[in-house]
Amino acid sequence: MDLRRLLEKMMDTGASDLHLKTGTRPVLRIDGELTPTDDPPLNGKDLEAIGDQVLTAKQKEQYLKERELDFAFGVPGLARFRANFYNQRGTAAMAIRHVPLGVPAIEDLNLPNIVEQLSHRQRGLILVTGTVGSGKSTTLASVIDCINRGQARNVITVEDPIEFLHRDEKSIINQREVGLDTNTYKSALKHILRQDPDVILLGEIRDQETMSIALMAADTGHLVLSTLHTIDAPQTVNRILSFYPPHQHAEIRFLLASTLQAVISQRLIPRAEGKGRVPAVEVMLNTASIQDYLISPEKTLMIKSAIQEGAQQYGMQSFDQSLMGLFTKGLISYDAAMKNASNPSELELRMKGISSSSDTTWESFEQKEGEEDDDAPRDLVNEPDDNPEGITRF
Asked: What architecture (CATH level 2) is domain 106-382?
C-alpha cells in the first residue's frame, strides 16, 4: 500500500481528511463532503502496511494495547498530517487530516478584525469553539502566530498531538506533545505554571481538572487559549458549568465573569463559487453586560441578544450577522446562509430588507464591499484598562 500516493491525491484535490477502512475504498472529505476515490477497496494487510510506514515501535505497542491512537506525522516534501487509528468491528480503520506546513495569517482566514485585537490581551481566557473540523485549531494557530510575530512572550502549548509547527520569532514558543514530551495531559498541566509562561495554549479542555487549571492560570495573570466542542457562547457557558457539581456553579460563574475574555465560535460554510469553505464566526466579548449575564443563571440566555446588540460598539457579532456579511460580500450563497442560520426566519427577512428602521446593529453586515462604515467597532487594543480586574462589583 502506497500511503504517499493517497496523501498526494488528498493534497491535489484539496481534501481536508482521508478515511481508510477495511473492505472500503479510500474516502476523501472535500469541502466538507465525503467523496470515494477510484482506488480498490482496502484489506487488512493494506492497513497494517500503512501502520508500519508511520508508527514507531512505541506507538504500535500503544495502539495494540488501547485499540486507538492519536498522533501526527510529516511526509518530507509534502505536508504534516494528524491521524487517528482505531478499530471497528474487529478491523483497523484510520482517519488522517491534512495540517498545512505554514501557519495562515488571521487576515487570510476571513476572521473578524477583533480576533487579531484579542491576541494583544495580556491575561484572561479565550475559547475557540465549534464542531469537529470547524477550523478551531487553525484559528488558535493563527493567534499564536500573531503573538509570535509582534510580541516578546513565553508561549507554552500542550497538544495531543502537535499540529501546526511554530518557530521562535519575537516570542519563545515551547510546544509539548502528549506521549512524546510529557506522559499525560494532566501531568503537563500540573507543572505548566512553574515554566514561567505568559501565554498558555491547551489543545482542548476535556474535563473539570483541565478547566480548573485554565481558569486558575487566567485568574493569575496569564493569557490562556483553548478549544471546546460547543456551537455557540451560551452552550459554552453551560458546558463549562457541566464539568462541576451544582454547589460550585455560583463560584465558577463568578470566576468566568472575572477571567473570560472572549468566546469565538465557528462554522465552516461552502463558498458560493463551489470550491473551499469560509468561516461564519460568532464573537462574544466579556463586556459589563455579559459579566452580569454570566453571573446570573436566569440571564444567561440573554447573552445571544447582547452579542447581536454589541456589534457596533464592541465588535461582537452573532452567527446570523456573520452569515449576512458573508452573503453580502458574495462569499456564500443564499441557500448556504439559510441552512446554517441560527434564526433562519429573521435572517430571511433581513436579506429581503425587512427590518426596523431603529435597529442599526446589522448595518455593517449589510454593506457591500467598498462601502464605508462610519460606525466601525472601536480598536480595543489601545483602550485604557479602567477595570483591571475585569468585573463589575456588586
From this structure: 3-Layer(aba) Sandwich (3.40)
**pLDDT (average), residues 380-392:** 45
Domain coordinates in residue numbering, the chain: 3-99, 106-382
Residues 148-198: pLDDT tens digits?
999 999 999 999 888 899 999 999 999 999 888 998 888 898 899 899 999
CA-based end-to-end distance of the chain? 66
Cell of 377: 467597532
State how far the Cα of 238 lies from the Cα of 223, in Å rounded to an integer.
22
C-alpha angle 206/208/214, rounded to 5°?
80
One CATH from 3.40.640.10, 3.30.559.10, 1.20.58.2140, 3.30.450.90 for 3-99: 3.30.450.90
Strand order in the sheet with 154-159: 172-177, 154-159, 199-202, 223-228, 124-129, 260-270, 277-285
Q: Is the pTM of this model over 0.70?
A: yes
In Å, how far from its chain's centre is CA 296? 27
Give me the residue label for grid cell 454589541: 310
